[in-house]
Amino acid sequence: MALKSEQGSAGARLQSTEADRKMKGYQTIVIILIVAELMVAEAAVLAGGTRNKGKERVMHEGPKVLIKSTALTSNIVSRHKNSDLHEIYLAPYRYIEKEAKAVATFMEAAYFNNSGAVQGYVVLTQEAPAKGVTLRGNVRGLTPGKHGIRIHEFGDIRDHCRADRTGQVYNPYKVKMQESNIEVKEDGTAEFVLTDKTLTLVGGRSIIGRSIVIDQEPDDDFTRSGRATRRAVLCGVIGRAD
User: Fold this and answer.
1) Under a CB-based contact definition with an 8 Å cutoff, are residues 96 and 131 in contact?
2) Which helix (H) or strand (E) segment is 233 a member of?
3) Which is nearest to 213 in space by CA: 179, 178, 237, 184?
4) Same-domain status, 19 and 131
């Protein structure tokens, strides 16, 4: 029974992979056709248009294309059936045959004086580019309660997590961020699993080489607004692990 279940799961994965490849191929063909039409239109404009049977010069216009980045799934949208405006939504895509994996080992902030009491790590995985990144971590030595956790722009954690070195919270799509916290128990430990669909481990917007920071304060509207000082308690550089 278990063997049948595994075979069924393998078959489903193969079908899913084949479907993804077909969709990618379809999207590529449509984009090529749109770009080709744009090139023809541009060539006609550069050549001064064409002449109709009445020898009148006619200028041609190609389709209007709006390309946007998205943290979700790539898609092509026509505004209206009678409109030549097309929107192309491109997810951070790079085809990967296996799960992408990264890891970060936390370093404690300066005011702990290298006590070694505050430690932890996080493993980051991504099944497919459009599915986001899942973080599975374990920390100890923190005060009980909520602590904000975020990916920051830079992987420079010299001087024990100084904010001017790690930079701002990494938000490449300028989306409105939701709360991102871990819950520390009374004994100072926490095990957590978080998923962020706006993050990726592959492509130009990969978080590999950036830093992951856990703050003393919870992540909420007040701290995200910049009106409150955020104090890092742990930080680590995200490195590839596969």
Assistant:
1) no
2) strand 232-237
3) 237
4) no
- Residues 183 and 205 reside in one and the same domain: yes
Query: Domain count of the chain?
Result: 2
Residues 122 and 228 both lie in one domain: yes
User: pTM for the complete prediction?
Assistant: 0.61
**Binning pLDDT at 50, 70 and 90, where does residue 7 land?**
very low
Q: What is the pLDDT of residues 173-225, one digit of tens each?
A: 777 778 899 999 999 999 999 999 889 898 888 999 999 999 999 987 655 54
> Are 121 and 104 a contacting pair, CB within 8 Å?
yes
Whether residue 24 sits in one domain with residue 69: yes
The confidence score (pLDDT) of residue 127 equals: 87
Question: What are the tens digits of pLDDT across the range 26-40?
Answer: 566 656 666 665 555
What is the residue-averaged pLDDT of the chain? 74
Q: What is the domain range of residue 77?
A: 2-90
216 is written with which tokens? 């003393």
The Cβ-side half-sphere exposure at 24, using a 13 Å CA radius, reads 15
